[in-house]
User: Fold this.
Amino acid sequence: MKLLVPVKRVVDYNVKIRVKPDGTGVDLANVKQSMNPFDEIAVEEALRLKEAGKATEVVVVSIGPAQATETLRTGLAMGADRGILVKAEGRVEPLAVAKVLAKIVEQEKPDLVILGKQAIDDDSNQTGQILGALLGWAQGTFASKVVVGDGSVDVTREVDGGLQTVSLKLPAIVTTDLRLNEPRYASLPNIMKAKKKPIAETTPEALGVDVSPRLKVLNTAEPSKRQAGIKVADAAELVSKLKEAGVL
Assistant:
């Protein structure tokens, strides 16, 4: 069984985001970038399935600038077998990402696509669902447990009321949640081996996909600073303050 794992290059989660003074976007100059944390979980789950004998190959794919090669190398250092870079400059929206991935799926013919439920830069939480719709594949989102069987995969997913387990026929799409696993650290020998693993390159144009943005960002602004609270003497004063604030 072949596993395909899309990974995205995003601003590292430890970095404090700065908005450009003109409000045109986030300042990325000299900012550390790394693999999206949810995608790390997806890579880890794919590797565990391979180690358990459920899969024979793990392929990581990234859509972005040339620097996204570093993100692919991270996945290869964790244990993936090979990588695919789809070179694209600028912002690529979820619909375009899903269309590109659909083309990669047609070429690679994986049995299972595992990807993070969302990226921490735009928090769209759309790519996996759109990809499932484009391919006509079953999908299990927000997975906290994945069990691969004979021609099927059982996905335990987190919903508002608790946990829900769905059984999907392969091929299928799975998006990962935080509680699925704890990603491993790449060892130094594996980091060195990753430098020799193959990374194929292509472009959206070569795949026949138009990635032109459909949305226009009008303005980007930092969240307003949280104001200090006040102490009240009793419940009556609390109700009074809430009425003044227009909450009640």
